[in-house]
Write a structure and sequence with these properties.
Blueprint lengths: L4 E5 L3 H12 L4 E5 L2 H10 L4 E5 L1 E2 L2 E2 H11 L5 E5 L4 H10 L3 E4 L4 H27 L9 H13 L6 E4 L6 H11 L7 E5 L8 H6 L16 H4 L4 E5 L6 H13 L1 E2 L8 E2 L3 E6 L3 H6 L5 H7 L2 E4 L10 H16 L5 E2 L1 H9 L5 H15 L4 E2 L1 H4 L2 H14 L15 H19 L4 H8 L3 H10 L8
Helix pairs in contact: 13-15, 18-19, 19-20
Length: 463
């Protein structure tokens, strides 16, 4: 197998020599240039697997070279070498299309990791587009907005730049983050998703950075944090806007320094982690209101990726319905049902404020209610239908289960779950907790009721 070849561009002889020796020990051939002009000549006369360029050159800057390589040598990754503390320059380079950056003084271990990942990316560059065309993507749809999203995912998977994924709740932001990871050179390493809003504030530092034994009451053993778990892989920070301000400061330092300090430790641990983040909130508005640090926003929002809501790509709904029902039927080991014409029309006309997640919940509920493998309109239990049915029922009788009210503090998904709980409990009470009779009253099989009770956390109620 032929050696990899790397182009080094730096006007400092000592830096060039250091890089040449380091890469030479990795069995990598190198060519060196001291300025833009000689770098362009080398690019014209030879083929390289990677370019390492300084930001400041005698006859220009590294951004010019990044742009040139992006334009004429798109399959070749390029990483920039920046001055110590020059984060603005690094972010500018990443926005221009640089694969990654390394700061002076050069951390040789980080450099070796960067080069290894970049060369793996170059090796896979010929197959990435083929995979995108011939293998099914986890992002389903044929709409223009989804085709654009898949194209952006394919492009961003070739970079190490932080990506801020924005979109409505339930639109599939974690799915997008996972796809970026799987298509990139880190795919053999961990993808660690974390919901920032689900971690108690007093445990956040320990959860993210780990802790040493005895560092606080209850720390009986050393614990690895999420950053360490994601080393050489990807850390996905979902609902990043929910982080408290004091944690935002520590997160910013970890991202900028590429190192973490476990609770109770005096030493930092260098890490190689790509950070992707997301929230359904307007992060720019959060910054204006003082709830989110501007410097952290600037750092995680190097590249912004928008995930379209389901209401803007309704032509994708039939494909999504088919896929979701196939998965549920396989999971439950039943025949795949289909929607009748009226149910199909209701689905297509619905606005889906909860996006794909809401569609999944609606179809899962409908599958438990349907018979003969046909989902009718009444099985969908869309909010308008539920409101109408419960209003009629309330006019007939009154019981101890009050109708839960929808408010802005709860999501629509949570509201629908509460309604479902109420109806099931009402049926159980009416049948004196006879589950077989309750299932019949609700128009579903005993197996379906048992599944719903377990999912809703009601399976411990008395028979």
């Amino acid at each position: 197998m032929s050696k990899h070849k790397v182009l080094i561009v730096d006007d400092e002889p000592d830096i060039r020599e250091l890089l040449e020796i380091t890469l030479g020990r990795m069995n990598i051939q190198t060519s060196s240039a001291k300025d833009l002009k000689s770098a362009k000549q080398l690019l014209d006369n030879d083929t390289y697997d990677l370019c390492l360029t300084d930001m400041r050159l005698p006859d220009g800057n590294g951004i010019e070279l990044v742009s040139l390589i992006q334009k004429d040598y798109a399959s070749m990754p390029v990483a920039v070498i920046t001055a110590f503390g020059s984060m603005d320059a690094a972010i500018t380079a990443l926005k221009a299309g640089a694969f990654d950056f390394v700061s002076k003084p050069v951390d040789l271990q980080y450099l070796r990791d960067l080069v290894t990942i970049a060369l793996k990316l170059k090796e896979n560059s010929g197959s990435t587009d083929i995979n995108m065309l011939n293998q099914p993507s986890a992002i389903l749809g044929q709409s223009d907005s989804i085709k654009k999203l898949i194209h952006q995912i394919n492009k961003l998977s070739r970079s190490q730049a932080p990506v801020y994924i924005c979109g409505d709740s339930g639109s599939g932001k974690e799915l997008v983050a996972n796809e970026i990871h799987l298509l990139g050179p880190r795919s053999d390493n961990p993808f660690i998703p974390v919901n920032c809003g689900a971690i108690p504030s007093e445990l956040m530092e320990s959860e993210f950075f780990g802790h040493l034994k005895g560092s606080f009451t209850g720390a009986h053993d050393d614990k690895q944090g999420l950053f360490q778990a994601a080393n050489h892989g990807t850390l996905f920070l979902d609902e990043v806007a929910d982080l408290p301000l004091n944690m935002q400061v520590k997160l910013l330092r970890a991202i900028q320094e590429r190192a973490i300090r476990p609770v109770g430790s005096q030493e930092e641990i260098p890490l190689d982690v790509r950070v992707l983040s997301a929230t359904h909130k307007n992060l720019e508005e959060e910054v204006k209101q003082g709830r989110f640090r501007q410097d952290l926003f600037y750092r995680i929002n190097v590249i912004q990726l928008n995930v379209p809501p389901l209401r803007e790509r309704k032509e994708d709904i039939p494909l999504l319905v088919e896929n979701i029902l196939e998965k549920l039927s396989t999971q439950w080991q039943v025949d795949v049902p289909h929607l009748d014409k009226e149910a199909e029309k209701l689905i297509l006309d619905y606005s889906f404020p909860g996006n794909v997640r809401e569609l999944e919940n609606i179809l899962e509920r409908a599958l438990t209610l349907c018979d003969d493998n046909v989902i009718y309109a009444e099985h969908l239990q869309l909010p308008d239908q539920i409101s109408s049915n419960t209003s009629t029922e309330n006019n007939k009788t009154t019981n101890s289960f009050d109708e839960p009210e929808f408010n802005n503090e709860n999501s629509l998904e949570e509201h629908l779950v509460e309604i479902e709980k109420k109806e099931i409990l009402k049926a159980l009470e009416a049948t004196h907790w006879n589950r077989t009779a309750a299932a019949k009253k609700l128009g579903m099989s005993f197996r379906a009721l048992r599944y719903r009770l377990k999912k809703l956390g009601l399976d411990n109620d008395p028979e």
